[in-house]
Amino acid sequence: MFEAMITLCLSLGEGPCRDHLLPGYEAQTQAACQVALSESPPDVSIFQGLQAQGVATCQPVGEALNVTEVASGVFVHVGRIEEPNASNRGDVSNLGFIVGETSVAVVDSGSARWIGEALWRTIRARTDKPVSHAIVTHMHPDHALGAALFSEAGAALVAHDSLPRALADRQANYLESLTSLIGADILLGTRAPVIDITVTEVLQIDLGARVLTLQAWPVAHTGNDLTVWDTATGTFFAGDLIFDRHTPALDGRLTGWRAVLRELQGLDIERVVPGHGGAALDWPLGSEPIARYLSVLEEDTRAAVEAGTRLGTAVEEIAQSERSLWQLFDAYNPRNATVAFTELEWE
């Protein structure tokens, strides 16, 4: 199998440069790929600020992502439980796709364009059905910033109604931070997605004899959490409403998150794909660790507020009983305690 690639650089003289996948030109032979390129030349003007080093060429298919089929036609890529760095190249969240009879839906796409490209190759290795939708479960960069690749491939990008504004407000900071963490060369070509369809309550997407139910939630993990329920298999993509092993990250409202979680626990779900951790969790058993953590976070925070404890001291004490049960605890729990304290202090 061959695909179209083009080398794009921030500066032709000094770089950095990276080979970028141009989706939609895949072919069994190099000659067929070249014919497709000549008949429909790519528009590289979409890569604003980058310069092409030569023209697009057809090369053997590059790096793809490993996935697990957690249910019939439902595939999940498990990201590392790590902070983004040059070694993991930002591959730190769970992503997936669902194959219907006529099309495919992607759920989250990683923190950089290269991850979206690798996920595209994984899909193409399993089906030639078009990717009709790419769903973004929330604004955080490790879930959202690989999505533009799928838009180029013709997919409609779908997200919570509040996501476009929230992402617009933060995208510059996200890209600056990721450049520092994983490197400008790895991040090259990454840009915030432009959402085509927003969900205010519930939206159903038909992939052909496979209907997905998308639901927008009140402020919880973030202010723009969106879930995807494949009722055909009972598989529920929770985004970061559910964490497994990775310390939860609070960027919304603690009390709102706990309320949403209680509602999720009442759904008739077979398995849940968490935003971080294992590929799929049994339900509702898989909700118990995060439900316990959020409960402890709230109880300890309320106790600190009622005792008049200063924020700086409270942050070092809140939820410490959970420390041995989660990875990346020291990176995320102080932030969670700060957000929770601020929320409950003014309740």
Describe this structure in words.
The structure is a single chain. This protein is α+β, with helices and mostly antiparallel strands and 347 residues long. The protein is globular, with a radius of gyration of 21 Å. The chain has 3 domains: 2-60, no CATH class; 68-287, Metallo-beta-lactamase, Chain A; 294-345. Strands 5-6-7-8-9-10-11 form a 7-stranded mixed sheet. The chain is 32% helix and 25% strand. Strand 7 and strand 8 (104-107) form a beta hairpin.
Please state the oligomeric state of the protein chains shown.
single chain
Shape, please? globular
Tally of strands:
17
Give the name of the CATH architecture of the largest domain. 4-Layer Sandwich
* Annotation field: number of helices: 10
**Main sheet: strand order:** 5-6-7-8-9-10-11
**What's the domain count?**
3
Can you tell me the CATH superfamily of the largest domain? Ribonuclease Z/Hydroxyacylglutathione hydrolase-like
Strand percentage lies at: 25-35%
Q: Report the uncertain regions.
A: none
Distance between the first and last residues' Cα: 58 Å
Order of secondary-structure elements: EEHEEEEEEHEHHEHHEEEEEHEEHHH
The CATH topology assignment of the largest domain is: Metallo-beta-lactamase, Chain A
The computed structural class is alpha+beta
Biggest sheet features: 7 strands, mixed
Rounded Rg: 21 Å
Provide mean pLDDT, rounded.
Answer: 96
- At the first level of CATH, the class of the largest domain is Alpha Beta
What percent of the residues sit in helical stretches (DSSP H or I)? Answer: 25-40%
